[in-house]
UniProtKB/TrEMBL annotation:
Transmembrane segments: 7-25, 31-52, 64-86, 106-132, 139-156, 162-182
Name of the protein in its database record: Uncharacterized protein
Keywords: Membrane, Transmembrane, Transmembrane helix
């Protein structure tokens, strides 16, 4: 039962992320999009916590080490969302925002430039591990790895149509994972097995 809220978060998070991209204005999130992106980071963190707890039962080292990296990636999503929010609220352009960050290289690295890449890295790692240990269908792992590859290609140059593709690639597998946690107690048995296996027991 306690897995169900985590499953719901894995569906809500990519929906919020996709909606925030839809609200882009000239490649910037703005107040509305930034708010939704920041909120998505909260749901990503909650969903990842349940997902990595489940993975820990099958791959202890990855379930343990991967969660802090994932949470830092979520922090990056929140930070970029708030950056977009304050850019519009304070009437600061994108170039002005980047110029201001250049005056604070250490803190900008800690808040934005390091946590940001950890999100797609987390998604790629999840895709690889879930497919490797057969905790999800192969297509789920493949889409996660593809989404992790496309994600930075859209967010760094801020190309809207590529960002939309990345959002769909994120939504589909995470919706499957979220639905699985909503219906079951965990990922175990997520991949259909041969009906004959264990029939003799």
């Amino acid at each position: 039962m306690y897995r169900k809220p985590h499953g719901a978060s894995l569906i809500i998070a990519p929906l919020l992320c996709a909606t925030s991209t839809f609200l882009w204005t000239e490649g910037r999130y703005g107040a509305a999009g930034g708010t939704l992106l920041a909120l998505s980071g909260v749901f990503w963190a909650h969903g990842f916590t349940g997902l990595f707890e489940d993975i820990r039962r099958h791959v202890p080292w990855y379930g343990t080490a991967g969660l802090p990296v994932a949470l830092l990636g979520c922090f990056g999503a929140i930070a970029f969302g708030l950056q977009g929010f304050f850019e519009e609220v304070l009437a600061v352009s994108g170039p002005q925002s980047l110029a201001a960050l250049a005056h604070h290289p250490v803190t900008a690295t800690l808040v934005l430039w390091t946590p940001g890449p950890l999100f797609p890295l987390t998604v790629f790692g999840l895709g690889a591990v879930l497919a490797w240990r057969r905790l999800a269908p192969t297509w789920v792992g493949a889409l996660l790895c593809l989404a992790a590859t496309v994600f930075p290609m859209s967010r760094i140059p801020r190309i809207e149509w590529i960002a939309s593709v990345a959002d769909v690639l994120l939504l589909v597998p995470f919706a499957w994972l979220g639905w699985t946690l909503l219906r079951r107690s965990g990922l175990e048995g997520g991949v259909p097995r041969d009906p004959g296996v264990g029939a003799e027991r």
